[in-house]
Each structure stands twice: as structure tokens, then as C-alpha cells.
Amino acid sequence: MTSKSGNGKNNDLSQSTDEVYGKNRKLVETLSYAAISALIIAVILLMLDLKLVAGIVVIIAACTGLYLVKKTTALLNRARNSIIDASSSNEQKDDVINNFSHKIREPLNNLVIITDMLLESDLQQKQKELLETFVASTKNMVTTVDELTMQSAENLSLEPRKFIRFNLLSTIQNTIELYSLKDKANIDFILNKKEFSDFECFGDPIILKQIFLDVFNTIENYDSTRTTKVTISLKKEKETESETFVGLRIQTDKNIVLINEEQKERSLTARLISFKRGYFNQEFGNNFTVLNISLPFGNIVREQKQHIASPKIEELIQKEKTHKELKDIKILLVEDNLINQKITHLTLKPLVYSIDTASNGKEALDKFGTTSYDLILMDIQMPVMSGLIAAEKIRALESSTNTHVPIIAITANAMLGDKEKCISSGIDDYISKPFQPSTLIDKIKKII
Q1: Can you tell me the distance from the alpha carbon of 146 to that of 97, in angstroms, rounded to the nearest whole number?
Q2: Paired residues of 191 in beta bridges
Q3: Which of 25, 28, 99, 168 is the most buried if burial means most Cβ atoms within 10 Å?
Q4: What's the CA gap between 237 and 68, in Å, rounded?
Q5: What is the pTM of this model?
Q6: How far apart, in whole angstroms, are the C-alpha atoms of residue 433 and residue 420?
Q7: 311-447: in CATH 3.40.50.2300
Q8: Is 351 helix (H, G, I), strand (E, B) or coil?
Q9: At what angle do helices 437-447 and 338-348 cross, to 10 degrees?
């Protein structure tokens, strides 16, 4: 009797989660393809030097992307609630979460890759800030998936991105403006700039936007029925030769716990602040809360002295250099999704000499047996033969030839233990979707 009851509950979980996903899947897919198509069109228009039209398309695509993130986050939250409420086995919960993770990460990865390409292009500042906010929103949404897949917050990995030059005040201002555009945004913002002039700095604007977006969401989730007044102030706290600590003061007209200090490991804001080597404290009153955040930002180097090495040193460096340049390598891309294939090609083609494709693990093995490759980019979830099995078979073939072709797993899965499974099957490195093109390129450079 107990076994039947357990099976019934498992079936109820499966049906409820399928129902939740089924109702919104079509809308999410439609929005994903619409945003991806618009961003690709923008790239083409920029190549044709039609900057004005490209800018309009970028704005449409980014707004569509933000709406997509909002719908997907709502879908994930409903799924999380149904999983938490259901008394099913841990194994089935993992299957359900893994399915959600894979389905959501695939289209988001394509959006992030194309967005990153556009951020490197000649767009106007406002258009770039809009795209940055979309990326930050996406990262927050992906964190929701990560929190479902990780057993504890310590297992959530925060990877550093490429540091860029940006205007701190403009970044915060843009994040506020864009958050105000969302449906039923019940926050009245005041940005106090009296003690702070424009500040050009060096760092990652997306992490800063993630922090603000997460705080704004916490405020709105606390009371969505009444408008909350939020005052933001900035000031420089201390300055060294290489960096400046900036104080960010966020005050609300309600008593809201913005960061649960008893469970800081569960707070995205707390983890991001810690990741950025910052710190925070909170003040509470009858009708207000103040969150004080201190974060370091790199100073802009106005003049950089060039180090000129002697010809002899340069000659020794060149002799020791054994790895190949990107332009000289041949890559086998193993990916069953045609759109993912095209976008990875779009990312790597300007840098890489040759890219072959395979649609599954078996096809990859056939090509590996007849062609010499410098690197394999391997998707994990594929029909016919998975990436893990294909990697094991490739390593078995290599064992008799004393060769080793590096394999990087590119996967939409993010379950705890997935990285360990990849390494144990002979895969050299692992990257989880969505990722930035620069992250993949850095991994390739390190491994070849």
C-alpha cells in the first residue's frame, strides 16, 4: 500500500510539473526564437553599416529578452514550489529539475552569445546598457535554476567575466530606468547624486546590475500592493592606487529584510558582494530599512608604460611556445541542435581555421576516426550516443595511439556532480550554458 501511494505521489508530481511547463513552453520558445532572430538581424544590419535600424532592432530584441526572462523566472518559481510541496523521491526531483534546466539554458545561451557579440560592436551607449541589463537579468534567472540544482549554496560557482571600462553612475541609472519599465513595477526610485560625480571605473557592470536587480526584486516581493520608495546614494569611501571602494546606500520606506543575515549563503546579493570582495550592513527602523554596500572598483589607468623585452628574451619565449594559435586549430563541434551549431560557428569562425560538426556521439566517433582534430567541443545530451559515452570511447581509442585530443563539454545541464561525471569520462574541461563567448575562447586558449 505504501509503495502504491508513493508511486501515486510521484505520478502527481510528474503530471503537475508537466502541466506547469506545458502551458508556458510554447510562449517561452516563441519569445526565445523572436529575440534570437532579432539579435541576428541586428548583427547583419551592423555588418551592412545600418546602425540606426540595427539600434532599433536591438532595443526590440532586448525588451523581448527581458520579458522572456520574466516569464521564465515565473515558470521556474512555480516549478520550484510544486517540487518543494511534493513528497517524491530525490531522484525524481533531480530528473524534473534537470529537464527544466536543460530546456531553459539552451535558448538563453544563444541569446547571451549574440548579445555579447553586439556589446562588442559599435552600438550607442544606451543600447549597450539595455543589453547589459538583459544579461544581468538572465544571470539572475539562471541563478534560480542553479539554486534548484545545487544541494547547498557553497556549490554555486560564480565565474569571473572579462573586466571592462564603464561609468558607475550611468550603469546604476540605466538599471533603475529599465526596472521601472517592467509591468506593475511598484518601486519609486530616487537616485541621490549630490555626493557623487560621474565615475569611470574598471570591472564587471553585470555583477553590479545583478546586485541591484536582486535587491529590487526582494523589495517588490515583500509588498507588491503598495509602492515602495527607494532612495539610492553613492559616495567614495577609500581610494588606493589600483582601486576605489564605493559606498552604495539603499534606503526603503518600509521595514524590509533585504538580506537575511542568518542565511546569507542563500542570498544572491550576499554572495555577489562577497564574490566582489565587498561587505554590507543593514539598519532597521519602524518605517525604513537601510542597506549599506561597499564594493571595490578598479581605477582607470590613464597612461600605461609599455614593457619592451629584449630580442633574446622574445626568441626564448617563442621557442618555448608549443601550443597552437586559434587561427591554426581544427575543431570538431558535436551538437545536435542546428541553431546552437550555427551560433557557435558564428562565435568561433572569425578566430578558428576550421570547424567540423557532428550531430551526435556516434557521428563524432566516425569523424574522429578519419580526421585529425586539435580540439573537440562536446554537447552532453544528444540522441543516438551521449557526449559522455562518446568521450569514453574516444579515450579508449587514444589509449593505443599515445595521443590526447582535448575535449571541452558544453552542456545545458547544471546538476551537482555533472562536472565530476564529465571529468571521469575523460573530458578535460566543462562549461555550462549560458556562457559568454569570451569564456569559451579563454578555455580553448588554455587547453590547446
Answers
A1: 10
A2: 232
A3: 168
A4: 38
A5: 0.55
A6: 17
A7: yes
A8: coil
A9: 70
